[in-house]
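RETRY 2/3 - previous attempt timed out on the joint model. Re-submitting the same 671-residue input unchanged.
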Amino acid sequence: MKDLSKVNNPYNDEKVISQCSIFGMMNTSGELVSGVPIITAIRNMHERGNGLGGGFAIYGCYPDRPDDYCLQIMFNTLVSREETENYLERFFHIHHSEEIPTCPLDAIKNPPDVWRYFVHPKMEEMHEVISEDDVVTRRVMRINTHLESAYVFSSGKNMGVFKGVGFPEEIADYFCLEQYKGYIWTAHGRFPTNTQGWWGGAHPFSQLDWTVVHNGEISSYGANRRFLEMYDYICTMHTDTEVIAYAVDLLARKHGLPIETVMDIFSPPVWEQIDRMGPDEKKYFNMLRSTYGSLLLNGPFAIIVAHHGEMVAHTDRIRLRPMVAGIKGDMVYASSEESAIRLVSKELDRVWIPTGGHPVIARLKVDEKHDVIVGGKELPGTTVMEAD
Amino acid sequence: MSTAAARERRAESRGQERKTRGKKIYSPGEWIKINTRGVHHKDLNREIRALAERGARKFELRKVYGQRYIGTNLWGTERDKIKIRVYGTPGSDMGAFMDGPEIEVFGNAQDATGNTMNCGKIIIHGSAGDVLGYGMRGGEIYVRGNVGYRVGIHMKEYMDKVPTIVIGGTMQDFFGEYMAGGRIIVLNKFFEGNPPIRQSYFIGTGMHGGNIFVRGDVEAHQIGAEVGMEEPTDAEWKIIEKYVGNYCKAFGLEARQAKLLRREKFRRLSAKSTRPYGRHYAY
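RETRY 2/3 succeeded.
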């Protein structure tokens, strides 16, 4: 295992408690849009962070290489890059590699090198029946756990995570994000309160093309982590949010559960409420809570989970962290604060505060018939904010 | 006013004289327009305070996008009131610790509006987020739309200082949790002509004072174990009528519409005991 003493707090606590700003936007027609609005929005919530972490996930940003896995990796030393590149050459076909362009800023102190590699795993060397996704997952875990000072920011196709220590708007400037386009963007401004901020500890957290930005604290981190370790997910970033990324990967990709069910596992109703439900619903929640009880996320959280084709805004069941959703035409927004949405979209078809524990799901329109733009159960109690 | 407070006020006015020397003095009737776009909340609130020290009493804030603590560091009495109109979306903690001014929001408010507010009035033409009126100790809040989770928790009252919240729409869970005083009236979309909605759980959990008046049925499983449910008394109904009248006035509704409100449709939720945990931790 790596020595994390340099990047962790002196007490070696295993999680970070944070109070942050999150913002997500998706064009449900799949049109690639500029990141200027999301940078403006997250800058408007500057007050929520403290400059110890900011980051963005962009989907659809590498349209020239849509079928390659894009590994975005940070290196603290030149040696670590050489070592990692040797590892990559051994296990991947590297189609293209480059240093991610940056614009040096005074605000960004002592940045690591961040490179991206467009790769395919060497499947011909695998002596077992295994999917490409699983091979990539395994290799990423290996880099994160065994290679010195190298951490994989993201490993999905046609997407990337850009993050670091600084306010999110500074990170956006540093990575020149106004030059990228994507159909889903998520962003995070961090306020770590328990351990120091470090580049790998910034959000979004990612596994393949799943990303998570998170405001809150996962009190159940220990239980969740132990459960995930049984499925070979090894937590290396030493923050609570990491477990959400792995849990989504396990439940949605490996176990093939619909995202609504994944969110029901994360924040199921309390037993008392389940007792009052009809027989079908009762059976459903009983089943989820007994099978995946260890993946119930306890504690306050508001998260935006994304992967290709879907963006999900979700909170804990009693909404201990804020979340506001808005729609204008094809654009769906999710934000910690309503003001940030209003700043980037002067007119809105609808703005509302989702009920705690009930996700807002934005999906890519497949055709006119399957125009599932926003799912999630809207309860009568949903706080609908009047649009203009 | 106690002598200490009077001394403080005199000291304050002396300070004001020093600060305003040689600067323009505003007339209290003048509406001062401030475009707040891109202005940090510290600068904005400092500016409002400085203008108020120079006599300004009426402010119109335009293009507000999330500036926090609006109305916090001001003062005001019945005869000398500071009024603030907010266009846009004010930030969290609007009117936090507020002591006198009147704020009117033409839009939605975010979280923690009226946090520990002491005196004054907040009128919100849209909806409000979570934790509205947290620890409120006096003053009035009127919300035309809906409110989020944990509204009115830890509200308290003392003698003639009875904080009051009137909500036109609906509420979410943990409404009036640990409430120790004050009153909240929920109209459940009466003025929109809607039937009341049954919703929200853990209402009044840990409540040991104050009253919640809800239009419509509330089931026993929706309320905390410490909460009793009854019909409002004659005296309480008079209070409800008074504040619904204020609500109509605030939002330009005809007062005769309020006459259609039926007392028997209301439930009063109040503490069964003033010390629900008296024997909980110590014997």
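The two ends of chain A are 54 Å apart (CA to CA). Closing ticket.
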